[in-house]
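Q: A reviewer asked whether we had any structural model of the full assembly, not just the individual parts. We don't, so I'm hoping you can provide one. Inputs are below.
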Amino acid sequence: MIRQKSDNRFSAVKLMFRVRFFQKKPSVQNKEYQKINNGSLVLIFSLLMVLIAMSCSKNNDFGEVNTGNSQYIEGDGVFVLNEGNFGQGNGSLSFLNLDSLKIGNEIFSQANGRPLGDVPFSMLIIEDEAWIVVNNSAKIEVVKLADLKSVATIEIPGSPRFIAQVSPDKLYVSDFSSPRIFIIDLQNYGVEHEIVITGSAEQMVLASGRVFVAFWSDYHFPKLENNRIFVIDPENDVLVDSVMVGKEPNSMVLDKNGKLWVLCSGGYLNEELPSLWRINPENLSIEQSFQFSEINSSPTSLCTNGTADTLYFLNQGIFRMSIFDDKLPESNLIHEENHLFYALSIHPESSCIFATDAIDYQQRGLVLRYTSGGTFQDSFRAGIIPGRLIFNMPEN
Amino acid sequence: MIYDTLDLSEVEIFSNLPKTASGFKIAEVDSFAIANRETQSLAGLLSSTTPLFIKNYGPGSLATTSLRGASATHTQVLWNGMNINSPMPGQADFSQIPVFFTDNIKLCFGGGSVQHTSGGLGGSLEMTNKIDWKNTLNLEILQEVASFNTYKTFALIKAGNSAFQSVTRAFFAASKNEFPYLNNAANRENPPVEYRKNAAWRQQGILQEFSLKTDENTIVSARIWAQNNQREIPANITVNVPKQNEKMAEKLLRGQASVEHFSTASKISLQSSYAHSWMNYQNIISEIDDENFVNSWSNMVNYENFKLNRITISSNLSYDFHTVNSENYDDKKSRNEAAFFLGFNYALNPGLLLNVSVRQEMMDGKLAPFMPALGGKLRITRNIPVFLKANVARNFHAPTLNDLYWMPGGNPDLKFEKGFTAETGLLVEKHRGNWKLDADLTCFYSDIDDWIMWQPDSIYSYWTPVNLKNVISQGFETGLKLDAVFNKLNLNYSLNYSFTKARNKKGISGDDLSVGKQLVYVPIHAANQNIRLTFRHFTLNYTLAFTGQRYTSSDNSSYLPSFTIHDLSVSKTFLFGKSSLIFKIDVSNIFNKSYQVIAWQPMPGRYLSFALKYSFLK
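A: Here is a predicted structure for the entire assembly that you could use as a starting point for your response.
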């Protein structure tokens, strides 16, 4: 009486109407009652079958499915750390191959059969391996560059942010939540011990044989002033000194003269004017400092070109200045237009400008490419909240 | 017309629909379903017996709902007329509301919510406690033991006479909640079995009601609800965290006092309610140990008049005041809300009911958008009670106190979210001798503008809420209910299906691929079916709940697959004079389906529970 397609999952409603409760009105009362009961039973039975049929699916078919996966093509290009939403485990890794201009998405999970984790935040390439710091998953994933297969997973007992190589066999990992820097042995892929500092640790730069660590966030240290750069002696793994800069130093670079540049946002509550500082890492003196004029602005993502003579940063638009300039740039190099720039990086050889746009922070965001002169070239869809960009330039 | 061949008697489908909401969709949760799941939270009841999608992070964890594609803050939860959504996040957590503390649950879809509250852009859920004036003495004690070290104890004492009734309910429930699951974050192809950690929870509560008839036409009532909730918050399975990283504790105290007075052609009621909550959130890694205090005081006067021929006038005046003392705000914050409602229900003739209402609110002295609503119900056939209903309503939702004042990020310049809903549908009920059939179909359209979303500026900036999206939600809900008696066998069958297309219309830029796409975590398809057979003192209940695919990214590039959960329960009642013993076995998720309602938050597979209930009814 009733034909049904087993693959028609939502035919229940149609069916309900098709069964059409039951024929015409009979003359005798209880005959109708009988008929309706039969009709009802058939109806119920059919619906039951449909619903059972539609519930029969494979039992391992329950995890999140990504339809935007694409292939990893190794080579000259840029890794994109897609942070994903904090706490939602939807971070991922992308790689834009700059020869073929093809972007590979979800490439870590394709290589390893599992997700990268919650908020992949920073990454360091050491020889033929990539070390990916996954902040909220409290781990570092080490993968081979060739195929992205996992080499090791290092659990970090804290909230890891950045990784820096400080000697041939030693890495430092900065921590957001506690006053520590973890020390990792490059050979054993394990946390060896830690250095106690007096604040949280964010970005780290090796200069003049010492490690400069930005005290960016006072979230866990409300009584401390987060306007300092800690100086660590990497031979003895001890905090030796600190330099005072502006509030919330969020990014640092070294220029071609070996000077350390520090960009400070001025605080998330706009407590002070944002500022840019030049430090002599030899004697820790402040050689130069610039104040931004707008207290409500929050400049971030300080970076340099390959020759380390030009600085770039985000402050709604993309700004550029020479390390020899005696004032901050007045206008931007690239206007934001309809984008909202999230992160910035400069190609070390071509000086092409790469920026990310997370759009609504819930969809696959964009990696935007501009020429060194600031002309828009092309854009690529990466993952959710594309953040840091790490260039991979194999020798040759 | 699909129902043309039916011959129906003169009964309406929702017979206890309030007279003042003709043409609006207000559905009651089946009373047997409430009784059958009395040991569960509202999350468990609603996800398996209504077409609502419950966004559930796991047993005992946060559970909210999306009604017709709107957000969790767009579902208003009322307890005897008092809004119990927390003014901080603006939502209620269904995992913390015991079904045992309510006698009746109404789902008011879309414009159906405007009579009692604003802000229900998706709708509202109204829980009420009913008084049984015929009761003299009723005692119940119920013990349940379930999988994963779950223990629940419930007690009820109802005592009184035709002029005074007291109802006491108390419960204690706790679970270690270490259920096995397949960890697809460790290996997608061959997920290993692991046990959920740091997910234990414990709840205890008491609800005391007193009702007194001071004279034949006046009822004075008082209610006190106290509850203590503690839970660990497990991280998503892509996160490796040490034991007991996140914890939450909550203490709630709610009190209500009301007077209702009936006269021949009118009814007036006054109610004053007070709610206090203390919430503590701890995160060991992030070294957070926050305390939040919320005090709410709500007052309302309702007046209904039936004096005029064929016209019912209903009016409502309310004033609510909330204060929040939170470490997450820079200062003590408060909000006062005043509302006025006036509605006319007009029976033009026996076959046509019309409803017109207006609602005007003020928030902190600021005039909120005017809320008119218009509804109608028309009997479209002469011999058969088939009704056509339709309504339109305007609504708004105020930013939550977290949206306004959270530090950092809170945005005091947010605008109200504005909503418009329209719906139309058909209702039918055939009721004859020993069987009864109900069916309904409702098509809806809703437009929510200035939808609030949180987002950051750039990598080192904090998240801040903005009036960002414009969401159009369209779809339909249909239901079928059949009750029949064959000799000594009772059969009750119900089927619900809902189709929801909720799409974002406003793009941030030309690159925004969310335009025209389904909202995240709003299933397009949801259905459930319940079959209950009662024979002598045996009852068998079989529930099947289907949840369709949910997108997890706004460009719809990722999704979670659909899942169907089957539950079966069998109970047997033994009678001993005025006492009875009920023994019940529940098998939940019979087919041991692995599923995640929220990505990377596992749900339990098959589990069992045994319950023994003793009742004494004088």
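A: Points you may want to mention in the reply: Residues 1-36 of chain A have pLDDT under 50 and may be disordered. Chain A touches chain B through 86 residues (CB under 8 Å).
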